[in-house]
């Protein structure tokens, strides 16, 4: 009995599917390939706004095209976003077996951590596949494994594990805010409050897209620091080393307007 297809959103355009993924569907009949493509596109369109519905479409695509690595990958990512940790792990492992590569190690490690298996998360961080990761993927995996060490009570080790060349407020990469935030959070767990405050400042300045709640964490720490005076001193010190703040001040004239106006 064929699985019943969920209704596609009206704006779904199967032709938007990436050419490489289309190639994986060539073993299917054209009609079925088009149908699977539509549900994969719907998965991608919905995963940020309605992950559970995205998972419904991904599961249907998986039932109709289970031998396509990208279909299994889409199912795994949708399951992860929906909090279905076991399913996410199963699908991402299948995708890696079929397609090779080291993709989504950080997500797999995060699933292991969510399932209460921090040791397995740390093992993934030590696996040979890590040598194939991009810099961003390596940073994301390091953040997850640092959290796994905290789960095991290895708080100082979690702090040390994040002390790499990427942990530099002079660098502003797409992953900087998340890395600075994770480092600050681990410092706080180690009761290194002043250092944590400083790195939450760096995280806030690097976070152009509002990915973290660093400003709120800073507000919470003011009392623990003994009041606003100490907090202001730490902010000033942190901002003196922050390129975002320096660039902003250089763009302003003496009255706060643009220096070039």
Written description of the protein model:
- With 261 residues, the protein is an all-alpha fold.
- The chain has helices spanning 19-24, 30-46, 51-64, 69-81, 85-99, 105-114, 118-125, 135-151, 155-161, 176-189, 193-206, 214-224, 228-240, 243-250.
- The radius of gyration is 22 Å and the shape is elongated.
- 43% of the residues are buried.
- The model is unreliable at 248-261 (pLDDT under 50).
Pick out its properties:
261 residues; Serine Threonine Protein Phosphatase 5, Tetratricopeptide repeat; 3 domains; 14 helices; disordered C terminus; Tetratricopeptide repeat protein; TPR-like_helical_dom_sf
Layout of helices and strands, plus pairs?
Elements: H1 19-24, H2 30-46, H3 51-64, H4 69-81, H5 85-99, H6 105-114, H7 118-125, H8 135-151, H9 155-161, H10 176-189, H11 193-206, H12 214-224, H13 228-240, H14 243-250
Helix pairs in contact: 2-3, 3-4, 4-5, 5-6, 6-7, 6-8, 7-8, 8-9, 8-10, 9-10, 10-11, 11-12, 11-13
